[in-house]
């Protein structure tokens, strides 16, 4: 686990430094949450949760709720999502998504899903690492330069 130095009033003598863990934040995409029943994904999520906080974009709630066949199923989805910190979408996230969409269009990479662009913009604004299982994020993060990772190796579970 990474560590950084910090001063401490309750710790060692004056002038000495103590260390505290750096908390990592991970924004988990819909592409991961729809695969939560897959054992390697569960293992990877557990490992990430030890390293820091797991969140999901508010847009993800709508994406997952879309698949509910009835009210009971929708409620079940919402309860499962409560395990992840909800990160709201800000107006500037839409503007950033538009900028990235334009940049991708310039590169001939049209067709990136709007929810993916929004989730990436939210993660970028918050400084959270984007966790996914979707090739689209390779293109999006290539344009933004933001940190991202595959939850498990591409192609390993589908």
Automatic annotation (TrEMBL):
EC number assigned by the record: 3.1.-.-
InterPro entries: PIN-like_dom_sf, PIN_dom, Type_II_TA_system_RNase, VapC_family
Domain of life: Bacteria
CC cofactor: Mg(2+)
PIN domain span: 27-141
Keyword terms, alphabetized: Hydrolase, Magnesium, Metal-binding, Nuclease, Toxin, Toxin-antitoxin system
Binding sites annotated in the UniProt record for Mg(2+): 29, 116
Pfam families attached to this UniProt entry: PIN
GO molecular function terms noted in the UniProt entry: hydrolase activity; magnesium ion binding; RNA nuclease activity; toxin activity
Described function: Toxic component of a toxin-antitoxin (TA) system. An RNase.
Protein family (similarity comment): Belongs to the PINc/VapC protein family.
PANTHER family assigned: RIBONUCLEASE VAPC2
Name this polypeptide is given: Ribonuclease VapC
Species this protein is from: Microlunatus elymi
